[in-house]
Amino acid sequence: MAPGMLDPRFSDPAAAPSGWEEVETVLATAGTYWLTTVRADGRPHVTPLIAVWYDARLYFTTGGGEQKARNLAANPRVALTTGSNALKEGLDVVAEGAAVPVTEPALLELLSGAWVAKYGEEWRFEVRDGAFWHEGGGAAGVYEVAPAKLIAFRKGGTYAQTTWRLE
């Protein structure tokens, strides 16, 4: 991956851009992400969820009746945010892009295994009818976000904002 661009407006003069490997590590290992979608009336909707980083894409699930599913049906543009809630340490990452439904059985099977590997047996899904099925929980649609833009915010020491445009 090409190096990200350091934004001097929001970075310490001595800062260096964050590295792609570190950003990928944050995206791959985070336990919780915050998904921002847009309601039909234009208001934002933010909710915490779990997700999987695979092949430079983020994947998440939602039930068909949930607010985020209704929002995505009308407007697929999202932001997924993760990182540390500590003020003076860590790296926060924002991934912006379009959430696209995933229905291909082979990819869903692979992702089902990725959920178990990351979050444990509690998150084992059966792949059926182009969706994830959870024991006692019904169907959940799976969405893929191939980030068009990633922003990494380094905190503590030399603050830095690094941006990748991946479109």
From TrEMBL:
Q: Which organism is it from?
A: Streptomyces polygonati
Pfam families tied to this protein: PNPOx_N
Give the highest taxon in the source lineage.
Bacteria
All residue ranges annotated as the Pyridoxamine 5'-phosphate oxidase N-terminal domain in the record: 21-123
This protein's UniProt keywords:
Oxidoreductase
Q: Which InterPro entries match?
A: F420H2_bilvrd_red/Heme_oxyg (IPR052019), Pyridox_Oxase_N (IPR011576), Split_barrel_FMN-bd (IPR012349)
Protein name, as recorded: Pyridoxamine 5'-phosphate oxidase family protein
Q: Which PANTHER family match?
A: HEME OXYGENASE HI_0854-RELATED (PTHR35176), PYRIDOXAMINE 5'-PHOSPHATE OXIDASE-RELATED FMN-BINDING (PTHR35176:SF4)
